[in-house]
Design brief:
Blueprint: H1 5-14, H2 16-36, E1 41-50, H3 67-78, H4 81-91, H5 102-112, E2 113-118, E3 126-133, H6 136-193, H7 202-240, H8 252-268, H9 276-296, H10 308-383, E4 389-394, H11 407-432, H12 439-446, H13 460-492, H14 495-506
Antiparallel strand pairs: 1-3, 1-4, 2-3
Helix pairs in contact: 2-11, 2-13, 3-6, 4-5, 4-6, 6-10, 7-10, 8-9
Length: 510
């Protein structure tokens, strides 16, 4: 494809007034905006989450959130509406704040604030707070207010967390202490109500049961023996009229008399009759002989003297009656022991359950006491600011020069944009122009070949009018547009405010 560069250049020259007009218009507007846009000063401060001075192995921290989570919480607390309004009103951050609504102030503070966070495994956690202000001191003051709020709220949050942790464990310890007391009282009451059937005395009661069973068996044998002796003695007496040959039951005094006589005989073998011990034994023997002799001839209820067989039968009956009474008491004692032994397994299960519950509560109580002690230590650490905390490693200082706008860049962009728009306008006009201007246009449109072409020749008057109108438009573009922009900036609203409103409507963040 062959381009007729001379033709396009001629077209450009013929329409250069459009180019100059658009170029001058955009360039003037850009230069005016570059010099009228207010300077923006940026101040920043950097904070870091400082490790605790006491190792976590010795004293676990009360705030267990991850570093990034802590920074996010700090940012949310900082950017609350009340904080932004207080700082803006305190420092008079924006011009004409009396004309701004609270929502506009909050939005402007939020737009001018930038918070960057960085945290990673094995890396320090940083937070950088940046604010764009109209002056350097004002921007630095806002950032320092931000830092003060972040540090204050972080310290309060940690202290509050430590205090709430202590209060929680204090409540747990109090509740568990009450449960321990209640369970101990319950166990004590149960033991008092079942003291005859407790597991710790089961072995003793089983031994007592065996002893009583042996005694009961012996008593029943003695009763049976006495009954047998009585029957044989009565049978012998009925048959022979005598009671000899049957071992007569002796009274306790008679048995004691026989023992004393035996002891007397043994003592005389080694001692003389005049020995005091021999005399004492003889006195006891004499006294018992009188008692035994009185027992051998008893009287019945009518006063008559009882026969020897009656004496023996009465003695045996008395002994059997005593043994029967002893047997009855042994049976009662065995029944009581059996009942207590039968109740022991159930008591064992109940006591084991209560003891297990008591042990569980005791373990929970000990754990809660240990945690309470650790929480109190953590509270002291937080109060002394020796735990994990946010600290400032770079305080905000007032910048000496503005960070934006870059006026030369804005002006250069305006010059480039004006040139591009001027060329684009000429190209657009050329694309929309369908008139015949070259010989080849005649050949293409009508299929004829011209012999000669004569261009349109303007009169001097037309040329003067054309140039005068161009000069007027150029002056309006170069002088009028900056003047209008300046008037809007001074008397209507600042350009940065207008740009911010437009960007907000378009959803663009400047």
């Amino acid at each position: 494809m062959n381009l007729d560069l001379s033709f396009y250049f001629a077209v450009f020259l013929r329409r250069i007034h459009y180019f100059i007009l658009v170029f001058a218009l955009v360039t003037a507007a850009a230069i005016a905006a570059a010099f009228l846009l207010p300077a923006v000063y940026t101040a920043r401060s950097t904070l870091v989450i400082e490790s605790p001075q006491i190792p976590g192995a010795l004293l676990p921290p009360t705030v267990q959130a991850a570093a990034m989570e802590q920074l996010q919480i700090a940012e949310k607390d900082l950017m609350r509406r009340v904080n932004l309004l207080d700082i803006a009103n305190k420092l008079n951050v924006f011009r004409d704040m009396n004309k701004m609504t609270p929502d506009q102030i909050v939005q402007a503070m939020s737009d001018a604030t930038t918070i960057n966070k960085s945290a990673g495994k094995g890396q320090a956690a940083f937070m950088t707070i940046t604010f764009d202000g109209e002056t350097g001191p004002k921007a630095a003051a806002v950032v320092n207010e931000y830092v003060t709020i972040v540090l204050t709220q972080d310290a309060e949050r940690r202290k509050t967390g430590a205090s709430e942790t202590v209060a929680t464990f204090q409540s747990d310890v109090k509740n568990l202490d009450g449960q321990l007391s209640d369970m101990s009282a319950k166990i004590l009451k149960f033991q008092e109500e079942n003291k005859d059937a407790l597991p710790n005395t089961l072995t003793y009661r089983l031994g007592q049961q065996q002893i009583l069973q042996d005694r009961l068996a012996q008593t029943e044998r003695d009763i049976a023996l006495l009954k047998d002796q009585k029957d044989r003695m009565i049978a012998l007496f009925n048959a022979t009229g005598q009671i000899t040959g049957v071992a007569a039951a002796q009274t306790p005094e008679a048995k004691q008399l026989d023992q004393l006589r035996q002891q007397m005989n043994a003592s005389l073998a080694v001692l003389s009759p005049s020995n005091p011990k021999i005399k004492q034994l003889q006195a006891q023997i004499d006294q018992l002989e009188k008692v035994v002799q009185a027992q051998q001839v008893p009287a019945d209820v009518s006063g008559a003297v009882m026969s020897p067989i009656d004496v023996q039968i009465a003695s045996m009956d008395a002994q059997m009656e005593a043994l029967e009474e002893q047997r009855k008491q042994l049976i009662e004692q065995l029944d009581i022991l059996k009942d207590s032994i039968d109740r022991t397994p159930a008591n064992q299960i109940a006591l084991d359950a209560m003891t297990r519950d008591l042990g569980n509560i005791q373990g929970q109580y000990n754990n809660a006491v240990a945690k309470l002690a650790a929480a109190r230590s953590s509270e002291v650490v937080e109060a002394q600011a020796k735990g994990e905390r946010l600290t400032v490693i770079e305080a905000a200082s007032a910048p000496d020069s503005p960070t934006k706008p870059n006026r030369m860049m804005v002006a250069a962009a305006g010059v480039g944009g004006g040139a591009a728009l001027g060329i684009a306008l000429i190209v657009l006009l050329e694309l929309l122009n369908r008139s015949v201007r070259r010989p080849k246009d005649l050949i293409k449109s009508f299929g004829i070949t011209p012999l000669v072409t004569v261009p349109y020749i303007r009169t001097p008057n037309e040329t003067m009018k054309r140039r005068s109108g161009f000069v007027v438009l150029l002056l309006l573009a170069v002088v009028g547009i900056p003047a209008v922009i300046y008037a809007v900036h001074v008397y209507v609203a600042p350009l940065d405010y207008i740009f911010a409103k437009v960007a907000d409507k378009l959803g663009i963040r400047l």
